[in-house]
């Protein structure tokens, strides 16, 4: 197999604030192979979006990477200079955000938004060339070319979301980071989005990182899943393994508390308590205060993410004896 | 079982705002958004009826019409055998005690300047003559029941000091303090985190038993509807396209729109990935909805007959009704 497209090593991110330091991401490591789709799942505040922004060095102050490496084709993004980052964003790694209405400029026509994106990386491109390229991408996204001359407010939510993807793909990146891409969409539009991304993945040989709290969406789309809690990866494995036989008690709880339309559930798993305060994270395992299988050691020492079997890692004392 | 709510031929049109130039040149013809377009159903005592559909299908408008938070354009609403469609404001007050509502976003339905205890006790102030001490006692005992513990401690907190799950519990408690019979829950868990959702759903189930409630549960998420509801009505562009018990609807969906909706729901199980085609296109405008069956432009079984007239809801066995001409 080739070298991985993305190799994240021991990444830690802090947000220093007035009352202390928020340990948003701690010691996260994983790799992403070419053409692979990885899901980052977890609840709000688990660090998944912070992680997504870090891949493009888009963290807003006071957030900063305090340790670790993000190797994209072997080059470390963490130490990269601003010029190099500018060249890489959009061309090599693209990002699709949650709310397309706030990510599109309401005063620019769709054509201008495409033109501006392309001009950034190919200064000599003419508007006509840009429009032709953009038209082709729109066709792939099953949007009529005429829409190029419209403004964001004239499009439906699903269309705006597809325009966002189009803008992301226009420069042929090989990695797409999608942060809750379907949260504002209806189920049928969402299903269309899932099909579209699967098609684009085949055609453009895209690698995808999907950040979402929607387990259904993740199960439909990705090959591997990293479950995050309190800024750390709790479990990493193939989608089949994670859903089929979850190892970590948090993964188990998370899956059990989602209503599944194919099942006749009599009750849902309840996970009382709330996510940890990351300024003062609990001693030991960060999930220990809510864990139904908590042992003495869990409250004392933090478990490490260890390989359980091939392609399967888990951070839990139940398996790290 | 008796019907608690019965609505007949309910309609709600919202006039479309026109700008000056339109009025000047296009003539003064007023156009309308047909948000709710001639729907009828009943909710039995002690039942959970789910109202599901995409955004813009009119499900929230229906919920508000039932509570007379919006005035219907046409049709009747009966509550416990009594026609409340045209009840004057003063008489509606006694009904407001029995009919309550929970909205999607707890933070925007709680006043940021009102303490939790005061917010929950406020409906009591309006509907019941109690002393301050009695009111506080009632509030505290309900707070215990909805899991807002320690109640004494949380009583004096402000909404911004609560977690998302706690705020939604406050909203639930406020709805239940007057001891209502009927609660409209409009996407009560849409804003919450996954684990909080499960807790709120379980709580709603427990409270239903404890307080002997009837729910209208409005949601876009069919998985949740299946978990909580006894019967489900599917709405599309202001109309009910199919209604039936949970078992009938999920095991044997009849209307092509219901089928599409069901197959589009993402399943949290990678071994059950969807293989069916989903309908193309998006929900059309409710200002000029397609003629006949509103779904026909997106329906793969559409025939010329479908665009001619609107198919009525017809019984297709048991308690299941579908508005489709297909056999």
Description:
The complex is a heterodimer of chains A (321) and B (327). With 321 residues, chain A is of the alpha/beta class. Chain A has one domain (6-92, 173-314): Rossmann fold (3-Layer(aba) Sandwich). Chain A has helices at 48-54, 82-88, 100-103, 110-121, 127-140, 157-169, 187-204, 215-221, 239-244, 249-256, 296-300; strands at 6-17, 20-32, 37-41, 64-72, 75-76, 93-96, 175-179, 207-212, 224-229, 232-238, 306-309, 312-314. Chain A has an 8-stranded mixed sheet with strand order 6-7-8-3-9-10-12-11, sandwiched between helices. The longest helix of chain A is centred in the middle third of the chain and has 18 residues, at 187-204. The radius of gyration of chain A is 21 Å and the shape is globular. The two termini of chain A are 32 Å apart. The model of chain A has no long low-confidence stretch (mean pLDDT 91). Chain B has an 8-stranded mixed sheet, sandwiched between helices. Chain B has a 4-stranded antiparallel sheet with strand order 2-1-4-5, with helices on one face. In chain B, helix 9 (194-211) links the parallel strand 7 (182-186) and strand 8. Classes of the chains: A alpha/beta (321), B alpha/beta (327). The interface between A and B is large, with 45 and 40 residues.
Q: Helix count of chain A?
A: 11
Taken from the alpha-carbon principal axes, the silhouette of chain B is: globular
Order of helices and strands of chain A: EEEHEEHEHHHHEHEHEEHHHEE
How many independent structural domains of chain A?
1
Report Rg of chain B.
21 Å
Would you tell me the structural class of the helices and strands of chain B? alpha/beta
What gyration radius of chain A follows from the Cα positions, in whole Å? 21 Å
CATH superfamily of chain A: P-loop containing nucleotide triphosphate hydrolases
CATH class of chain A: Alpha Beta
Search tags:
heterodimer; A: 321 residues; alpha/beta; Rossmann fold; eight-stranded mixed beta sheet; four-stranded antiparallel beta sheet; 11 helices; globular; B: 327 residues; 13 helices; 35% helix
